[in-house]
Automatic annotation (TrEMBL):
Database matches in InterPro entries: Aminotrans_IV (IPR001544), Aminotrans_IV_CS (IPR018300), Aminotransferase-like (IPR036038), BCAT-like_C (IPR043132), BCAT-like_N (IPR043131), Class-IV_PLP-Dep_Aminotrnsfr (IPR050571), D_amino_transT (IPR005784)
GO cellular component term of the entry, any: cytosol
Family: Belongs to the class-IV pyridoxal-phosphate-dependent aminotransferase family.
Documented EC number(s): 2.6.1.21
Entry keywords, A to Z: Aminotransferase, Pyridoxal phosphate, Transferase
Entry function: Acts on the D-isomers of alanine, leucine, aspartate, glutamate, aminobutyrate, norvaline and asparagine. The enzyme transfers an amino group from a substrate D-amino acid to the pyridoxal phosphate cofactor to form pyridoxamine and an alpha-keto acid in the first half-reaction.
Gene3D superfamilies reported for this sequence: 3.30.470.10, D-amino Acid Aminotransferase, subunit A, domain 2
Reported cofactor(s): pyridoxal 5'-phosphate
Lineage: Bacteria, Bacillati, Bacillota, Bacilli, Bacillales
Pfam families assigned to the protein according to its UniProt record, in alphabetical order: Aminotran_4
GO BP annotations, alphabetical order: amino acid biosynthetic process; carboxylic acid biosynthetic process; D-amino acid metabolic process
Protein name per UniProt: D-alanine aminotransferase
Enzyme class: transferase
Amino acid sequence: MITAYFNGTYIDPADLVVPIDERGHQFGDGVYEMIRVYNGTPFMLEEHIDRLYRSAHAIKLQIDPDRSALKNTMFELIQKSGLTNLDLYVQVTRGIAPRNHLFPNCPVSVSMTVKPFRTIQIGENGAGVTFYPDERWQNCYIKSLNLLPNILAKQSAHEDGYLEAILVRDGKVTEGTSSNVYMVKNSAIMTTPLSKQILSGITRMAVKDIALQAGIPFIEQQFTPDEMLQADEIFITSTTMEIMPIVRVREKVMNMGKAGAITSTLRGKFNELK
């Protein structure tokens, strides 16, 4: 089974050796996407590729091969893997060159891996979250390889028994370490507006479309942790978590420990898109 690709070669990951001078390894100098594949079809592929190119443009990285060739490589790797339901990871870095902070004059490196769906351990009805200071840089709209603040926050949440850390900057909720965050109040969905401080989530796009088509108000507005604690429902979204009900925020049980009606409606309609 072939489940990896690196710079033109399809390979078993166990046989792959990444050069020590690869800039993703040395500097985290690159961008990435995680794409969910349902029944052999990448979900919202064009939107994922659009975001990959936006991230690359933001760090002055020219992706080569072009968009069409990149997609062909994705589909060929999916086929070679023999999997139909999987997570496809795509990474583009500034290439392989002797260590130097300045941009090298060399081809970019493109790598991909595929794996079966990641299993996320949660309670019967949903997950718990906590709050954590948002200590990341100012350009979180870029899906960069530099994830150390996210990792530290998520690990801290995990050690305290929570699925996710909800990040707070200047007293306002931004997003999760690997998710967008939403609260429901008076039958309206509220989420942080897009800015440089959060990622434009692909599942967020789907949720917004579903909500508007269903006549559910979708309000892009900042809110505080205290306001979030007064919500009728809370959920988070990501490619791998899809739409995840939040039934506990620190010590407070939300909505009697069950997914709310609007969250359940969104999940049902999202499943119809897959």
